[in-house]
Specification:
This protein is of the alpha+beta class. It has helices at 14-25, 147-151, 155-158, 181-189, 194-197, 199-205, 232-240, 300-331, 346-359, and strands spanning 3-4, 30-34, 43-49, 52-58, 64-68, 83-85, 90-91, 98-99, 105-107, 128-132, 135-139, 167-177, 210-213, 217-223, 254-260, 264-268, 273-282, 285-294, 340-341. The protein contains 9 helices and 19 strands. Strand 17 (273-282) and strand 18 form a beta hairpin.
Amino acid sequence: MTIESLPAWMYTDPAFFERERRTVFRTAWQVVCHLNDIPEAGDYQAFDILGERVLTVRGDDGQVRSFHNVCRHRASRLADGSHGNCGRRLVCPYHAWSYRLDGRLANVPAWQGFDGLDPAEHGLKPLDQEIYLGFVFVRFAPGLPSVAEMMAPYTDELAPHCPPDLLPQGRVTLRPRPVNWKNVGDNYSDSLHIPVAHPGLTRLFGASYGIEARPWVDKMWGDIVETPSPNWVERGYQALLPHFGHLEGRDQRRWNYYKLWPNMAFDVYPDQIDFMQWIPVSPTQTVIREIAYVRPDARREVRAARYLNWRINRQVNAEDTVLIRRVQEGMESSGYDTGPLAESEVCLISFAEKLTAMTGASRP
């Protein structure tokens, strides 16, 4: 029996996009940042997704908490931008209501006439929050297992890459893409296009690229081969990648990719780790949100390897940008409905089964 892909209309239909908002993303865990992105009291990280506003802030007590980034008076956004420091209070720029860093309402200007207001009833609304290997996740409604439960098959592999002193390498980057969010995720887990569309990765990995699907996580991997690449960037990375004391065996030269349901992934390299999150904007618009993290390591060869890693993946990202746009354009054509999936495409099959079950999808 032929296994079919998700139909094209699911990548373009506004009504189905709204259904995904309710059934998939209400309960989905979203990564906000790493604890070391907000090291000081008042430091915060913020982002928006599907009409929700997320604010994660470090308190005076050192604790990290996540709230809706919405004032309890008239719904104004509290903290602006993607990151910053709010000092000792979050102050609404609309009517000057202020909140302590633990979310409690601190002050309402006396002249506004709220004499009988109970501060305990009007603090910031908290979000469900989970910290997994130093990364802060939030969700808007319960339903799915914890991040730790979902990632359990791979936590032992990830843990050596995620020490407490893992540091951000630069700032979060936002990359708009004119595609449905599922197109980004499908491409991330698609193994058949690697030898066709990514010549650089093929030179680096040889025939070692592999994939597997677990209930909530897809894993992809490739081992850096010893045969020197004819491309100087790739050849330099092969030669300069040093030994890392925290890694064992093949992980010294393995690139691992872990895609967590439904819309984020960890890219794990010997020299660094990053998260990549594809944020739905509309049925045909997505923003890719990403940032890299590194272990403190002053060795010159490590700095060089990280730079070359960036050069290699910049090319891969450029190739993928073209690929996903071509697919999205094809999804809007009357010449395509659905396509066959090979039995080896276990990640795409797993994703399609979960999405169909969760949305109760049927033809419009």
